[in-house]
Amino acid sequence: MARRTRKQLKGDSKRVYLRLVSEFPLESIGSENERRAAQKIIDRLLEMSSLSEAEEIYLNALIDLVSAFELKQQSTKHVLEDSFPAIASWIHHGWIEIGDQEMTGFSAMAFDCGGMVYEAAECETLGQCIRALENGLRDYMKERWNEEF
């Protein structure tokens, strides 16, 4: 992960490093926009014919931050698919609508080209609604296509 430099930069090297840090601070990347901005700086530095020691230190740290962000994105990418496989599968067959209906609570409906195939209605919480939709779609897809989750 992140590397720490014990080397003290001085003079011009320190100024170069601080200029780069002021352009894009070396802190955790929290969004895709920040990742893209960091990647532009990485690309710019990699295109240079040679890098100073300060630029190399900064580049390595920025690459570590981008890598950490991308790793985090990969590890969370399949959380929903793993938790709700029937809903994830259904998206390839049709679509779902989820909402909070005033006075009746949360509801979720699954549709295909023929219309609504399942409705989870009057749920007290969004989590309860999504679990009901998951279970309803599991039953529907098992009955219709013999698909098990």
What do you see in this structure?
The protein is an alpha+beta fold and 149 residues long. It is 57% helix and 16% strand. It has helices spanning 11-23, 32-47, 53-77, 79-83, 85-90, 126-145, and strands at residues 95-101, 105-112, 115-123. A hairpin with a 3-residue loop joins β1 and β2 (105-112). α1 (11-23) packs parallel to α3 and α2 runs antiparallel to α3.
Taken from the alpha-carbon principal axes, the silhouette is: elongated
Biggest sheet, spatial arrangement of strands:
1-2-3
Helix percentage: 55-70%
Helix/strand/pairing category: alpha+beta
Largest sheet: 3 strands, antiparallel
Strand content: 15-25%
* N- and C-termini, Cα separation: 36 Å
- Tally the helices: 6
Rg over alpha carbons: 25 Å
Task: Give the topology string: H per helix, E per strand.
Answer: HHHHHEEEH
**What count of domains describes the coordinates?**
2
Average pLDDT, all residues: 90
Low-confidence stretches: none
Number of β-strand runs: 3
